[in-house]
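Progress report, Aim 2. The chain analyzed during this reporting quarter is listed below.
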Amino acid sequence: MASFSTKSNNRSISLPSRSHPATQKIEEELNKLKTWEFSASPTAEAVHNGLLGLVEVHKCMSDLLNLPLTLQALSRCQDKKWVDEILDKSVRFLDICGTTRELVSQFKENVRDIQSSVRRRKGDVSINNYTSFRKKMKKDVKNLVTALKKMDHGEVVAVMEVDQLVSGVIRLLREVATMGISVFQMVLVFLSAPISKPISKWSLVSRLVNKGDQDNVNEIESVDAALSSLFKCGPSEVEKIQFVQSKLGTLEAHFECIENGLDNIFRCLIRSRSTLLNVVSCQ
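Predicted C-alpha cells for the chain:
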C-alpha cells in the first residue's frame, strides 16, 4: 500500500497559551503521543506502543468528561450540534476498531495453525489457508484505510461557545479523534505488509539467521518469506526451521498484545460515547 502513509508527526496539536486546569492532563498525554515517531514501516512493538499511548489518552479523556465540573459545563451548553459530530466519529471509530480487532484475532488463529503445522512438519493446508487469509486481510485493510480517510476529511461543526472549559473539551475531543486516526493508520500499515513473492523465500530468513539483522523488518513479512519453502527443508536447514518457529511464537505474542490494546481502546470508546449521549440528552 505504497500510497498510504502515517502522518501523525506532521499533524499539529494547537494548544492555547492558557488552558483550563481540567484539560491539562489530557493535553500532556496528547503531546507525549504526538512526539512519538510513526514510521512508514512500523514494527509490532511500535504498533503496540502506539496503542498503549492511545489507550492512555482515551482514559484521560474519559476522566475529563466524567468530572462533575465538566458534566455541568457541557450540560449548560445550549448549542450541542458539535456532539453529533463527535458521536458520528465515535460510531465510525467503533466500527473500524471492531473490524481491526477481528482481523488481528483471525491472524493470531492462523499463526497458531501454522505453529502446529511446523511442529508436525505437515502444513500445506494450513499454509494455503494462511495465504488466502493474508490476501483477504489486505482487502479488508484497504477498506478500513478508506474509512479512516473519510473520517479525516469529515465535516467540522462551528461552535459558538464562550465557556473556556466547554471549548477546551470540544477541541480535545477532536484532537483525540485526529490522534486516533494516526495510530490506526499505523496499525493498518503494519497489517498490510506485502505478501512475499515466490522467489528466494529463504533469502530473508538466511540473512536474519546469519546476521541477526532483524531491526526495521516487518514481523509479518519476515515470517511470510519462509513459509512456502518451510516443509521442503532438509536436515541441514533445521536452524532455519527453528528460527521460523521462534518468529511465529514472537509474532503470536505481539498480536496478543495488539489485540489487548484494541480491546482496551474499544471499551474506552464505548465509555466516552455513553458519557456524550448522557450530555446530549440533558435539557
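Confidence is low (pLDDT under 50) at residues 1-17, 197-202, 211-215. The CA atoms of residues 22 and 69 lie 9 Å apart. These observations will guide the mutagenesis work planned for the next reporting period.
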